[in-house]
Inverse folding.
């Protein structure tokens, strides 16, 4: 049995935090370690965290943003498999026992990426989300269904990649996954829903400053993935990869059904 370390970063997310913690601690048939990172919430988050006693590991120290907070959390992790769940998101029942069995069976896989749901503020699952193939070219052309709540990876993968880039303030999770791929680690997508991403007004980003920063990061990551800067013909290639993405979703769904990973 693999011990699974789950890191949750929380800053003034007391409204949803208990739902997140309970979704992790209620997982059965698997050894779970939950680490809560709170750099200084001013709502009731600290009281909620304290109410769980020694069922959670506390990391209550300042940080310079989510990426550094996640690094602080994983620096305390002692598990074999890692994942991170935001304080306003949650895992689905049976997710971690499935993950444990998967990594026991697929011992050459470093990164599992599954599906999930979009949830509303009342926990209703409103839309299914299916993963697509994760390749460096698909990443470069942003032709990936990237569902962070469905990503699980081996401790050795995280250590080899060096953790999250603390200078990336907008897509630190995507950059880590790309670093896994660039180091030749094997990914495996499954259609099984493993987590839920909660979407509500405060989570909807897209202001001019955010878009500018996101574009800048993806220009940099394009160069890392492709070994060159963007060219005029990349717009045409991007359209081809966006079309191919749909076929990879169908392939993952079929393979998952055949192998019992749906």
């Amino acid at each position: 049995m693999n011990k699974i370390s789950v890191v949750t970063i929380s800053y003034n997310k007391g409204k949803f935090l208990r739902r997140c913690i309970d979704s992790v601690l209620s997982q059965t048939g698997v050894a779970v370690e939950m680490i809560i990172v709170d750099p200084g919430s001013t709502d009731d988050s600290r009281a909620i965290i304290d109410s769980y006693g020694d069922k959670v590991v506390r990391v209550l120290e300042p940080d310079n943003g989510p990426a550094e907070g996640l690094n602080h959390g994983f620096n305390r992790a002692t598990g074999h498999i890692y994942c991170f769940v935001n304080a306003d998101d949650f895992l689905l029942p049976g997710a971690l026992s499935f993950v444990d069995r998967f990594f026991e069976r697929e011992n050459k896989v470093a990164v599992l990426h599954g599906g999930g749901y979009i949830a509303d503020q009342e926990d209703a699952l409103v839309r299914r989300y299916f993963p697509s193939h994760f390749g460096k070219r698909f990443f470069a052309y942003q032709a990936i269904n990237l569902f962070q709540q469905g990503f699980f990876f081996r401790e050795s993968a995280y250590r080899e990649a060096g953790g999250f880039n603390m200078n990336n303030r907008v897509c630190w999770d995507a950059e880590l996954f790309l670093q896994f791929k660039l180091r030749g680690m094997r990914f495996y997508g499954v259609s099984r829903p493993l987590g839920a991403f909660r979407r509500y007004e405060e989570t909807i980003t897209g202001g001019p400053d955010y878009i500018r920063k996101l574009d800048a990061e993806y220009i940099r990551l394009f160069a890392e993935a492709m070994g060159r800067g963007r060219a005029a013909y990349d717009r045409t290639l991007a359209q081809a990869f966006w079309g191919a993405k749909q076929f990879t979703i169908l392939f993952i769904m079929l393979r998952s059904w055949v192998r019992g990973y749906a």
